[in-house]
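With this grant's support, we have settled on a layout for protein records. An illustrative entry appears below exactly as we store it:
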Amino acid sequence: MSFTEFLQIPELAERYRKVKKYFFLRESAYDVTSACQLRCDGCYYFQGDKYKTRDNRDPEAWKAFFEQEKQRGITYVVLAGAEPALVPKVLKACYETIPLGTIASNGLKPIDASIRYKIHLSVWGDSKGDPQYRKYANGKPGPNCLPAQLRNYKNDDRVIFVYTFNNNNVEELDEVIARIYEEGHKLTFNVFSNPGENGSPLKVVDALKRTREKMIAAVEQYPETVIYSRYNAEVHTQALGLHDLFGCVYPRAQLIQGLQGVGISQSFRSYRTDLTHHAASDCCVPDIDCSDCRHYAAGSAIVSARLNQHVDSESKFRGWLDYVDTYLATWIMGYEKGSNLYFGPSSAGVSAQLRTESETSPRARVGDVQRV
């Protein structure tokens, strides 16, 4: 069957029309502060040298900067850094200029309710594991963040919790998901990706299969809570990372390969706290080892942009639709995820299938879409 024939199937055509409405999104990422209450194991912000820049703390300078970004065609922002909640005036300046976006936060300080961005609250483990993975700046075990997060964001429709699987915390999900379910919040998944300069004991070495099984079980047991799909689980738990499976579309990866980028690689920038960016680090998580990248933010661009690698079978097209539907429900305020359409192939075969496609697809080509 061809792509045109897939769209003759009513449920696939309906889902494609649903996600296609968001093809206009043009994203960049912004570190808005170098301040944070915590020092998490393997924290991407404190890798490399970007955290050494001097923060611009002037909200008016940020507002003028975001006006320039808007003129550049940016329609969606990801605000991160160390801890964005610590610079509320900068968040307000951005929201007043570009109203679509997401804030990545540890959740220890509430963000003003008037800022209607999606808020991703990070969870690294259960009540015993989280304080070990997320320490204070002095090296002592940190707080168990989840109770504070639930208290600060009770009944807040902006929030989705992001549980990052690492090599040691697969079973810790059970306690976390039960609490989030009880509070009526949503949860999605990330997979720890090894920092480029320094290895981490959290690197997922022998827990990929267990992680995949836990993800799928959670999707089935908590369908109203978990924003994820079987295809997401298969993609993010392969022995190969996203770059080797699909070919990374971010400017950093394109530059390393000596390729002339198209799509997102022409517009995406990763700005530091001094409002500068460098092409060599223009990536959503620039200090990750590309070969080990399974990051959920990277996947939302890489997999979504690779529609061309998902149209040679109905099963793969269903998987792509689920993946994009999951991405939009995770990152867009008010977007509701539909029922999953993909139920196979078996996880045993997907790695070889994707690897073959990656080897035969030109990595300079982004596909039909920039980032859905």
